[in-house]
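Weekly sync, protein design subgroup
Attendees: M.S., D.O., the rotation student, P.L. (late)

Item 1: inverse folding check
M.S. brought a backbone from last month's batch and wanted to see whether the design step gives back something sensible before we order anything. D.O. pointed out we never logged the input encoding, so this time it goes straight into the notes. Structure tokens as presented (184 positions):
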């Protein structure tokens, strides 16, 4: 059964909200030592779930959490930058938009472990753009792939890609037909 209450930590922080089996559960507010930093939102079995965290610096994160880390979708306001997008285990992840609050500078694209990585477009504060990076040069497979049978003819396929070709807004990889092989 869920209850509510207030708990004061030894370091001066506090939690006020729902409890279940001795853990924060439901809606609650947790403040850090001396009232610095605050999380206000939903809790599940002692972990943040969905809410707003405000650091002592004034930076904020509004979004979803998993196992104590930002995970899922969220918005981070940090200094003069705002990031809107996906989070993975506490890091900016997969896809997001980071833009300046005072200029037209921004980056929209893919992320990995909190860093810009892969496909994306960067716009500088003067309006200039850095387009997505060109694809890597073609690399051939070390040996032909095992060909499929088709109408009594054997075809030899080669890996033309790990080279990549444009396909809409994305890049794709595929196989290239090298030609028919003599039937054995």
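Designed sequence read out in the meeting:
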């Amino acid at each position: 059964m869920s209850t509510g209450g207030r708990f004061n930590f030894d370091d001066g922080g506090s939690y006020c909200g729902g409890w279940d089996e001795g853990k924060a559960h439901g809606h609650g507010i947790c403040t850090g030592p001396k009232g610095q930093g605050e999380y206000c939102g939903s809790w599940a079995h002692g972990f943040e779930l969905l809410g707003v965290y405000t650091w002592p610096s004034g930076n904020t994160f509004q979004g979803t959490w998993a196992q104590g880390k930002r995970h899922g979708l969220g918005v981070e306001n940090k200094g003069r930058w705002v990031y809107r997008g996906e989070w993975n285990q506490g890091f900016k992840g997969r896809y997001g938009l980071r833009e300046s609050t005072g200029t037209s500078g921004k980056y929209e694209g893919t992320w990995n472990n909190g860093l810009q990585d892969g496909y994306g477009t960067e716009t500088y504060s003067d309006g200039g753009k850095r387009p997505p990076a060109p694809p890597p040069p073609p690399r051939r497979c070390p040996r032909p792939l095992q060909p499929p049978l088709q109408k009594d003819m054997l075809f030899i396929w080669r890996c033309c890609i790990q080279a990549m070709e444009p396909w809409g807004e994305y890049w794709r990889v595929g196989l290239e037909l090298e030609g028919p092989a003599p039937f054995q």
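Discussion: Confidence is low (pLDDT under 50) at residues 141-184. The radius of gyration is 26 Å.
Action: P.L. to compare against the previous round before Friday.
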